[in-house]
Specification:
The structure is a single chain. The protein is elongated and about 35 Å long. The protein has helices spanning about 5-10, 15-30, 40-55, 60-70. The protein is built from four helices and no strands. By secondary structure, the chain is mainly α.
Length: about 70
């Protein structure tokens, strides 16, 4: 993983599940491909936010990420 998932969503490592969800929705709305047609950078950021959310929203995956990948 090239970038810290917490940084991708713009939240602290101690963020609650609600804060993570809100941050993801904000990023998803901003970079959604339907709002940014043809913008490869926005599409990449949307995918990064989605990956970060999929990992951090799941308690078990988040614990694994914190244990092995997070700095």
């Amino acid at each position: 993983m090239s970038k810290n998932l917490y940084e991708t969503l713009g939240v602290d490592k101690s963020a609650s599940q609600d804060e993570i969800k809100k941050a993801y929705r904000k990023q998803a709305m901003k970079y959604h491909p339907d709002k940014n047609k043809g913008d490869a950078t926005a599409e990449k950021k949307f995918k990064e936010a989605n990956t970060a959310y999929q990992t951090l929203a799941d308690e078990w995956k988040r614990k694994q990420y914190d244990m092995f990948w997070s700095t």
